[in-house]
Amino acid sequence: MKRRKFILTTAALAAYGSDLMAAPNNETDEKDGFLVKSGEARHGIHTPFMGVNPNDLKISTKDTAGQLSVFEYTGVEKTGPPLHVHLEQDEVFYVVEGDFLFQLGDKRYSLSGGDTIFLPRNIPHTWLQISDRGKLLYILQPAIRMEEFFYAMNDLGRPPSEEEAQKISLAHGIKNVGPPITLVTM
Q1: Domain boundaries, the chain
Q2: Nearest of 109, 87, 100 to residue 136 by alpha carbon
Q3: Is residue 92's pLDDT more than 60?
Q4: Is the pLDDT of residue 16 over 80?
């Protein structure tokens, strides 16, 4: 899928919010699309980020023949991932509500409800929720092993050590390259 088509597809998906419909394909039993309700995960498996913040799969790689995954993140604490690089996928984040600080390479961007940011593969990036509550819709394309990454992290049942996080990340096409972003200037 070329980036232009990806961006157009992403914009269309973002317009649907939490009630996303996916095109049917040969890898799913859902021939007529499907509905994933607010607060639910696509296959009923919740994968909270950092063990606290809901991070629910809405459209699975299995629904799209590996082309994309869509997640809905609800932040109840101010946190974010370490600085990392996706070796195989691009990401798009759409801020549904709240305020976030994103870092892409050496640049930082403040995003609020309604803002969208495109994070190309192979460029270090991270984000930090800066409001008390926040909600993101994010899309990974191609999805490849991203769902399995969140399942593996969640299966630990605790925050991983730096070594565990790097091992799990690398096994799923992600390389951690620095600490999480903070509000202190670089």
Answers
A1: 3-180
A2: 100
A3: yes
A4: no
Tokens of 86: 């996706």
Closest to 79 in 3D by CA, of 146, 121, 129, 44: 129
**Which positions ≥6 away from 69 have C-beta within 8 Å?**
57, 59, 60, 61, 139, 140, 143, 146, 147
- The C-alpha atoms of residue 181 and residue 184 are separated, in whole angstroms, by 8
The yes-or-no verdict on residue 14 having pLDDT over 60 is: no
Domain 3-180 superfamily per CATH: Jelly Rolls (2.60.120.10)
Q: Which band of pLDDT confidence, cut at 50, 70 and 90, is reported for residue 3?
A: low
d(C-alpha 168, C-alpha 172), whole Å = 7
**Residue 143 confidence (pLDDT):** 87
> What residues form DSSP beta bridges with 86?
174
Q: Is the sign of the CA dihedral 104, 107, 111, 117 positive or negative?
A: negative
